[in-house]
Design a protein that fits this description.
Helix 1 (about 1-20) runs antiparallel to helix 12, helix 5 (about 110-120) crosses helix 6 and helix 11 crosses helix 12. This protein has one domain: Glycosyltransferase (Alpha/alpha barrel), CATH 1.50.10.10. With about 375 residues, the protein is mainly alpha-helical. The longest helix is centred in the first third of the chain and has 20 residues, at about 1-20. The chain contains twelve helices and nine strands. The protein has a three-stranded antiparallel beta sheet with strand order 5-6-7, with no helix packed on it. A two-stranded antiparallel sheet has the order 1-2. Helix content is about 50%, strand content about 10%.
């Protein structure tokens, strides 16, 4: 518990460092230490919701009004994205931000923003394919990535709030199609499924941000575990619980999972044990396991809990926790965005911080 208290106070300090460095119209993207360069982006970027979301998580813990004021400033810049129908990431962008705001101070305006965001996300669903389209393409293809499982929570919220079951049905259909086509026999997942947009038939299975098409990209495995855990929470359908447990089993019994439980960027990276670690995969995994452990038998639940606990404690050590006042204000070091594309390699990332703080909050509830 002492580690958790320290981490929240430390994170509050770091995010005040970050907010003082940000330009008025920018969201943090990453930080390059050698250049002391804080990269920023606009509200249209898929990770824009994580900055205000993290601030809101921290405000819940610290009650520092400076964090809330800054979060509200960032939310104001995000409002227009409720009508953005060009992205599948509106769950990340809007639910991780305005969804968190609703838990602190529910407002009719937030409700409408989230409903409109759910409508925009639902507009990307095609019943022929049975999925929400991820990346747009000019080719005859319909691309769906495992990350999209993380955006379905927004749709469940919309059905609970409006009574419109269409959002729920889209989420379930997407999850079922993904369950059928994204996973291998060992319950590892591909990153991208290329569907025929006319027939819905799978044209190709690949892994763009991992080592190879047949490798297990670490963050992708964590997205799947977290996503199907949410599916079980929202539907109580045990097939989703079983899927989440099987994904967890693949990860936790993998011979290439290090003893500190911070995954290599890909479980099949060719230069293990010298491959880069990915703190983002670890943070998502820890948060997902801390929810999944609540839905399983005591023995399995204890395994999931203790693994998450190990991850949190190791991410809280100097190897991953940045020196106070450094790292551009980011909390954690050593994440990998997309190594094959040569982008965001061994840098801090906004979603790493978000899921780490979420995991700390979930862990704290177990410790009360």
């Amino acid at each position: 518990m002492q580690t958790i208290t320290h981490d929240f106070k430390y994170a509050e300090w770091q995010y005040q460092v970050m907010m003082n460095r940000l330009p008025a119209n920018g969201f943090p993207k990453n930080y390059v230490a050698g250049k002391d360069s804080l990269a920023t982006t606009g509200s249209e970027w898929w990770c824009s919701g994580f900055y205000p979301g993290t601030l809101l998580y921290l405000y819940q813990q610290t009650k520092d009004t400076k964090l809330l004021i800054e979060a509200n400033r960032a939310l104001d810049m995000l409002v227009k994205e409720q009508y953005n129908k060009t992205t599948h990431d509106l769950g990340f962008m809007m639910y991780c931000s305005f969804g968190n705001a609703m838990t602190i101070a529910p407002k009719p305006a937030y409700r409408e923003i989230l409903i409109n965001s759910a409508k925009s996300l639902a507009s990307r669903f095609d019943p022929k394919v049975g999925c929400i389209k991820s990346w747009d393409s000019n080719k005859p293809e319909y691309l769906v990535i495992i990350d999209n499982m993380m955006n379905l929570e927004l749709l469940f919220w919309a059905t609970r709030t409006t009574g419109d079951s269409s959002f729920y049905k889209i989420a379930v259909t997407h999850a079922n199609t993904t369950l059928k086509n994204h996973f291998r026999s060992d319950y590892s997942s591909y990153h991208v499924i290329n569907y025929n947009p006319q027939t819905g038939i799978v044209q190709k299975k690949r892994t763009q941000q991992g080592y190879s098409d047949e490798s297990a990209w670490a963050r992708g495995q964590a997205w799947g575990l977290y996503g199907y855990t949410v599916m079980y929470r929202e539907t109580k359908d045990k097939k989703y619980l079983e899927q989440a447990r099987r994904i967890a089993h693949f990860i936790l019994t993998n011979p290439n999972l290090p003893t500190d439980k911070i995954p290599y960027w890909d479980f099949n990276a060719p230069n293990i044990p010298n491959a880069m670690r990915d703190a983002s995969a670890a943070a998502v995994l820890a948060s997902g396991l801390l929810e999944l452990c609540r839905y399983t038998d005591s023995k399995t639940g204890q395994l999931f809990f203790s693994t998450a606990e190990t991850i949190i404690h190791n991410l809280s050590k100097p190897a991953y926790l940045a020196v106070k006042g450094t790292n551009g204000g980011f909390i954690l070091l050593h994440s990998v965005g997309s190594l094959p594309q040569g982008t965001e390699i061994d840098v801090p990332l906004t979603y790493t911080d978000y899921y780490f703080i979420e995991a700390l909050g979930r862990y704290k509830k177990f410790s009360r």
